[in-house]
Amino acid sequence: xxxxxxxxxxxxxxxxxxxxxxxxxxxxxxxxxxxxxxxxxxxxxxxxxxxxxxxxxxxxxxxxxxxxxxxxxxxxxxxxxxxxxxxxxxxxxxxxxxxxxxxxxxxxxxxxxxxxxxxxxxxxxxxxxxxxxxxxxxxxxxxxxxxxxxxxxxxxxxxxxxxxxxxxxxxxxxxxxxxxxxxxxxxxxxxxxxxxxxxxxxxxxxxxxxxxxxxxxxxxxxxxxxxxxxxxxxxxxxxxxxxxxxxxxxxxxxxxxxxxxxxxxxxxxxxxxxxxxxxxxxxxxxxxxxxxxxxxxxxxxxxxxxxxxxxxxxxxxxxxxxxxxxxxxxxxxxxxxxxxxxxx
Length: 344
Hints:
- The protein has about 350 residues and is mainly beta.
- It has two helices and 26 strands.
- The radius of gyration is 46 Å and the shape is elongated.
- The chain folds into three domains: about 1-120, Immunoglobulin-like (Sandwich); about 125-210, Immunoglobulins (Immunoglobulin-like), CATH 2.60.40.10; about 215-300, Immunoglobulin-like.
- It has helices at about 1-15, 305-335, and strands at about 30, 35-40, 50-55, 60-65, 70, 80, 85-90, 100-105, 110-120, 125-130, 135, 145-150, 155-160, 165, 170-175, 180, 190-200, 200-210, 210-220, 225-230, 235-240, 245-250, 255, 260-265, 275-280, 285-300.
- Strand 8 and strand 9 form a beta hairpin.
- Helix content is about 10%, strand content about 45%.
């Protein structure tokens, strides 16, 4: 029987006609140097064990389950699943690229055989992005981001803030996708850029934060125009600036000790009435912007009565009026002279 199986296997290889097409998934199988691949068959464990399982590489024997013979260089690198015919190959090298053939003789002496291709790549590693070292200023500066890495790179892809990065009016890619050029940089170009390097068996990525400096501009002073005496009052200076702006406040033309965006007056007095000016300065762009606001302090208004209190007062007044009226009525009647009766 073993001789018949061997003859059947030999004939199938010589003729190039293999029974059992689809025993292996459609290739190629991809692997990376130093890593592991699995050649997985689509066979389920059989009621009776296979007579023989044989794997070969470029015509040379890897393993034969009948004789337990293992080809040179494979003894510590392979594991054969004898119930399905699948093969694990470890510690891959570039020399492992090539054609692999599996031939299985079932208990019925039927031979099934198929080939597949293994492509081994140098793994992608050491991804990095090189960007400009100097500060970038909106509408003025240009920037180049270059992605590098080691290994066999077949794909380069750029992302920004988690989304694919398309070319634009001010954004261009080099022919090999290695470099992104932005000229001039705009405010919306700030963010996290990622470069993905890959081949069919491995990948690596790197990220780079782009900061675009601009402003300050779009100043708004948030504050009431009037404030009641002895109340808490806040004047807030809002601007758009990268990096954050530095603030100075002036009151009636005189510089104050306040250097924050918010000018806080915990208990305002009449002396706080006047003109306030906020000056915002960006230390990198060397630009500044200012805004003015006039604040008036007035007397505290009387607290208006609630509907319940007003109703209570109305009821009380009504009772007082009724009481006084009754008192006058009975008082007048009590003091009125009584008629006299004369007896004759």
